[in-house]
Amino acid sequence: MTGVTLQTGTVSAVDADGVKARVRLPECDNMRTNWLDVLQRNTQNNKDYWLPDVGEQVKVLLDENGEDGVILGAVYSDIDRPSFSDKNVRGTTFSDGAEISYHRGTHTLTIKGGIEHLVIECSADVLVKTQKATIDAPETIMTGDLLVMGKLTYEGGMTGSGGEGATATIQGNIEIEGNAHATGSMLSDGANSNHHSH
C-alpha cells in the first residue's frame, strides 16, 4: 500500500477499556490490522463512548504502511439496513429492541422497546412542564410527600393509611355527595363527627 488509504472491513476484536478494535480487511488479503482507535466525538470535557460490534462493517483510515490508523465509524450494508428511513429522524436502535429517537419535523422524542429499567438520577429539582401528562401504569409509587397545587380529582375511590398523627388533614370546607365512612375519628373543629344519632 502506498500513501494513506481508506479501507472497508469487518471488526474482528474489540478492546472496551482502550476503546480500540482490530479490523479484517478483505481487499488486503484478509489482513488483520493492529489495534486501532475508534473515533469518538468528544474525549475531554464532554466524553462520548461507543464501540463497534465484532463482525460489524466499518470504514478505516490507515497510514502508508498499514500499521497505524483510526476506525472512522460503522457503515450500513445490503445485509445490515438502517432502522430509520426519514431524514428528519436521529435515533438509535439497540440489539435488545430498545429504541431512542427524535423526529425534528413532528418534535417528538420516542423511547420504547425492550427497556426494563429507566433510571433518572438528579441531585437538584426536576421540572416537567407540559400541557398534559399521563402516567399509564398499573401501579405508581411515590416515596416522599406529594404537594398538589391545583385541584385534586380522583376516580375509582381513594384509600389511605397513616403513621403517627392524623392520616389526613384538610383545611377548608368539605362537600360530600354520597356516604362517607371512616374507621377512625373524623374531627370537625375538634369535635368527633364520625358518629350518627339514632
From TrEMBL:
A Pfam family annotated for this UniProt entry: Phage_base_V
Q: According to the lineage, what is the superkingdom?
A: Bacteria
Domain Gp5/Type VI secretion system Vgr protein OB-fold: start-end pairs: 7-76
Matches recorded under NCBIfam families:
phage_P2_V (TIGR01644)
Official protein name in the record: Phage baseplate assembly protein V
Protein's organism = Limnobaculum eriocheiris
